[in-house]
């Protein structure tokens, strides 16, 4: 099941990423860089929604996985779902009203728009509030389907609506109304449809019970400790990862913020390579911990960690080294490529370091252990937030990006040791050496050589071929240096040869 879910996650999230990235240059062309800055703020607002859900969605994911392992009855899981639904819908309504109430202030006193009027920006914020509220409730059903390990179906649904969301928005702003308000109205229409489909599918997956779900204080109390821990982690993580974007939205002009948002969204595409892995692995790790199968849990942990290093690591190395080439090929805009390349390299490095920590973090959650991440993030906030407040006004976007790198380097070099003192106590140096260093060093060496020998003046067609070849060779080198990935590839090749020989014999 885990292999099927992994393949489905990569296909599904890869398509979602394509729909999210492919049309950005056209959005900028039709709407302008300032309007794209508002779209960047929309992404920040959605990130903060994970705080407002008070740890409910990751907790629901875990409880649904435990339900598949027999830890819940149909009645108890339905009660939990209905209780979280009531809380989520209430929060969503308050969220929409709050953004509506503050839209004028945000448009006139917070943002520094130069070409968009304050009225247009305020209207965009009002619509943005409705859309984010709908997507907030969507998250409840997404986590249910993922926790129940029906990730193939989820990715089919998600891919269809991502296509409708991305391509439909292009049609709207390109041929109907080239305004930021029209863009967000379309997002709201798609979010409403998505919410209805995901909700109906979730209830279809849960076995029938003698009664329907009921709101239950007891059900919420039963998950309060884990959810409370997740809330603390989420709050501190958001403060660490989003404070730069919040400060920059105030300090920079909206157009400059648009360039930063462009670099950030390209760098965040790296998470599309690690997200499917952790999404597939977390329910399995939770199940293995629930059944006390420690040997298989350790094997799955290293397998997942190496897969993250190979897939996300090789892509990140290529993005860091070839950042200007990637932006130039994608946008066909020299100014965008020049202004965004340094930011892209720095943010990609920070995201790589962050992604390497995802598998250890998912393993902590599978053990129901949230305290460590809370304490580490609290210390990081005390140290990092003053640094951001000092660096950002002096060095702008690049300074804030380097703070992100330093933060994640601290997690990788310092924070991880605390985890290995309590769980997976014999696996630390194996993780460092085989799961991280070997795949990344191989990828860095191959990509660096490719960049060194790359001619200066190339047509875009040859540049694309060179970049594609560099990416493939970097991926292969990283995969061959990884024990589990290499073994899996060799097994697949041998199996394919065996099937081919059997077919030819018949």
From TrEMBL:
The chain crosses the membrane at residues 7-30, 36-56, 77-100, 120-137, 157-177, 183-206, 226-247, 259-282, 303-322, 342-361, 373-395, 401-420, 432-453, 465-489. Signal peptide: none annotated. It is found in: Cell membrane. It holds the Pfam family Polysacc_synt. It is a multi-pass membrane protein. Keywords: Cell membrane, Membrane, Transmembrane, Transmembrane helix. GO terms for cellular component: plasma membrane. PANTHER family: PSMA PROTEIN, PST FAMILY PREDICTED COLANIC ACID TRANSPORTER. This is Polysaccharide biosynthesis protein. It comes from Pseudohongiella acticola.
């Amino acid at each position: 099941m885990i292999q099927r879910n992994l393949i489905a996650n990569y296909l599904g999230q890869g398509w979602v990423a394509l729909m999210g990235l492919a049309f950005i240059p056209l959005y900028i062309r039709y709407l302008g860089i300032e309007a794209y800055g508002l779209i960047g703020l929309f992404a920040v607002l959605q990130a903060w929604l994970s705080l407002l859900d008070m740890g409910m969605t990751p907790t629901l994911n875990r409880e649904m996985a435990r339900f598949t392992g027999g830890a819940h009855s149909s009645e108890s899981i339905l009660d939990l779902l209905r209780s979280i639904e009531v809380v989520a819908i209430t929060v969503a309504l308050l969220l929409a009203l709050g953004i509506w109430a503050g839209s004028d202030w945000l448009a006139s006193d917070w943002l520094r728009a130069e070409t968009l009027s304050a009225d247009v920006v305020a209207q965009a914020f009002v619509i943005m509030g409705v859309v984010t509220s709908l997507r907030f409730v969507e998250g409840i059903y997404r986590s249910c389907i993922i926790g129940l390990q029906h990730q193939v179906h989820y990715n089919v649904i998600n891919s269809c609506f991502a296509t409708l969301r991305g391509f439909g928005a292009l049609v709207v702003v390109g041929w109907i109304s080239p305004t930021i308000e029209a863009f967000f109205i379309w997002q709201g229409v798609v979010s409403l449809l998505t919410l209805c489909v995901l909700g109906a599918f979730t209830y279809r997956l849960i076995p029938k019970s003698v009664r329907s779900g009921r709101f239950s204080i007891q059900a919420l109390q039963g998950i309060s400790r884990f959810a409370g821990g997740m809330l603390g982690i989420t709050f501190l993580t958001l403060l660490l990862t989003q404070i730069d974007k919040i400060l920059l939205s105030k300090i920079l002009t909206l157009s400059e913020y648009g360039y930063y948002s462009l670099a950030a969204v390209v760098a965040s595409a790296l998470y599309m390579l690690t997200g499917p892995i952790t999404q597939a692995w977390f329910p399995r790790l939770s199940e293995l911990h629930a059944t006390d199968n420690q040997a298989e849990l350790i094997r799955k942990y290293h397998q997942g960690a190496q897969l993250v290093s190979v897939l996300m690591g090789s892509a990140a190395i290529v993005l860091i080294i070839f950042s200007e080439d990637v932006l130039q090929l994608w946008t066909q805009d020299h100014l965008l490529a020049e202004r965004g390349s340094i930011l892209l390299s720095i943010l990609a490095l920070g995201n790589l370091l962050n992604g390497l920590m995802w598998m250890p973090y998912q393993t902590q959650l599978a053990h129901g252990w949230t305290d460590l991440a809370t304490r580490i993030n609290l210390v990081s906030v005390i140290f990092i937030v003053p640094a951001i407040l000092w660096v950002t006004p002096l060095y702008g976007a690049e300074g804030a990006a380097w703070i992100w790198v330093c933060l994640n380097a601290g997690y990788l070099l310092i924070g991880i040791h605390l985890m290995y003192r309590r769980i997976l106590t014999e696996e630390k140096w194996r993780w460092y050496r085989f799961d991280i260093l070997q795949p990344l060093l191989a990828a860095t060496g191959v990509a660096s050589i490719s960049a060194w020998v790359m001619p200066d003046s190339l047509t875009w067609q040859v540049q694309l071929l060179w970049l594609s070849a560099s990416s493939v060779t970097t991926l292969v080198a990283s995969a061959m240096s990884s024990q589990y990935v290499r073994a899996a590839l060799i097994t697949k090749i041998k199996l394919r040869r065996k099937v081919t020989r059997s077919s030819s014999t018949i």
